[in-house]
Amino acid sequence: MQTEPFHWNHERVPDANDQDSAISFGPFRLFAKSRLLEKDGAPLHLGGRALDILIFLAERAGEVVDKRELIKRVWVNVTVDEGSLRFHITTLRKALGDNGEGSRYVVNVPGRGYCFAAPLLRAEASETRAGPPVSAPHSLPSPLA
What we know:
Elements: E1 22-25, E2 28-31, E3 36-39, E4 42-43, H1 48-59, E5 64-66, H2 67-74, H3 82-96, E6 106-109, E7 113-116, E8 121-123, H4 125-128
Antiparallel strand pairs: 1-2, 1-8, 2-3, 3-4, 5-7, 6-7
Helix pairs in contact: 1-3
């Protein structure tokens, strides 16, 4: 599956006709175009920079992303140091419950960068975002005699 490069737009409002595929990992589903992260089906609040980092790393899952490249993509035309990146990586890890025990999602590769290490499943929006549940006619049980 070929992906298009990301262009972050923090003010973007998703269009109802916009196809947004989900990236699933562990109990999480990430909708990059909608900038939505869910855990067990419930929205999970994550700050903008941490979400940008997650989206970029997930799109390059299994690859080591250089720290400078990550900073350049997340902080466009802004000069920041690695401390800012580490702060937001820590925030992201806390939100994902990635504490070094159990599931590992974001892995530091010393001297090189970061890698999204969890297995991913991709699904199209039609497969992941169902409309409101349709109520089925209810059959009442037979009356007791």
